[in-house]
Amino acid sequence: MHELSLAVQLVQAAEEVARAADAKRVTAVVLRVGALSGVAEDALRFAFDVATADTLLAGANLDIRSVPVTVHCRRCGVAELPSLQLFRCPRCDTPTADVRSGRELELESIEVE
Amino acid sequence: MTPRILEVRRGLLKKNDEIAAGLRAEFAAAGAFVVNLVSGPGTGKTLLLEKTLAALRAIGRRPAALVGDLETDNDAVRLARSGAPVRQINTHGICHLEADMVGRHLSGWALADFDYLFLENVGNLVCTASYDLGESLRVVLLSVTEGEDKPLKYPTLFNTADAAVIAKWDLAAACEFDPAAAERNVHAVRPGLPIFRLSAKTGEGLGEWLAYLESRRLSEG
Questions:
Q1: Was domain B14-220 assigned CATH 3.40.50.300?
Q2: What is the full per-residue pLDDT of chain A (113 aa) written as tens digits?
Q3: What is the domain partition of chain B in residue ranges?
């Protein structure tokens, strides 16, 4: 359960960007969360409500965009992994530990006014 | 005011990642090989570390350790019996170590005096995966009492590890533990991960583990 500290980091980053742009408040936040990032979406939503109270983000909408895990296979190239329980190329079944996406935990953009 | 969209594209763990990168450079410059031990609570990280510190000292290496727990310095007291420099990090409720906690607990230590620095993380199979501590090696422990399917239940932690230890090996038969199934599950979520079957209590497998640490340390330098 480290979602609260992540939400606090999120608020700090968003406020910093908003202030630099002379914005009065942040109305929406877009977050990219990888399936391998170790973050639980429900916990993050709960923490977001707590962490945004009395900040420029109070009442802001949280848009979480899930990033699927993709792996690289030497023969078939990059492909999306259908299950986190099996790191194998979905096309030719070769095991691969070469993860190309899915670890993201990124504040993509904010909407301000 | 009309709403505007501002691009940010910033990692939420950026601050931790930057501190970790600084630590990694510091460790490399000092020649200290840093190992981050992660597992659930009660898997046997402290006993493995106790035996590892003693065995490394016995062959003339200079190990040190930072040990993370929510409260108490029980583990640090235990580990200090090996004679190695040990410090406790109390996280007071935080469920994982962060790079900044590691950095703050290094003050007054000359890193060049250490061949190894072990970071025993807080017992947690989820959050510890997200925080880079500047280590060269992340080792995940799974004990035979926990069941063979742990890697499937916590794929992120196993996927991001560099090696796995199957701990409490001396209890494997009593627990009807199926090592082949456990190793298949580890390799399902992290193909090619080196796995060590180890009993810190009896010493079985400790030699292979130490040889692995030494080879990784030397290939780093």
A1: yes
A2: 688 889 999 999 999 999 999 999 999 999 999 999 989 899 999 999 999 999 999 999 999 999 999 999 999 999 999 999 999 999 999 999 999 999 999 999 999 99
A3: 14-220
The pTM assigned to this predicted structure is 0.93
Which of B5, B7, B156 comes nearest A36 by C-beta? B156
Nearest to B73 by CA among B58, B91, B62, B88: B88
Contact check, Cβ <8 Å, A87/B191: yes
Spell out the domains of chain A, with CATH numbers in brackets: 3-68+102-112 (3.30.2320.50)
> Do B33 and B104 form a contact (C-beta atoms < 8 A)?
no
Q: Does B156 touch chain A (CB under 8 A)?
A: yes
Is B8 within 8 Å of chain A by CB?
yes
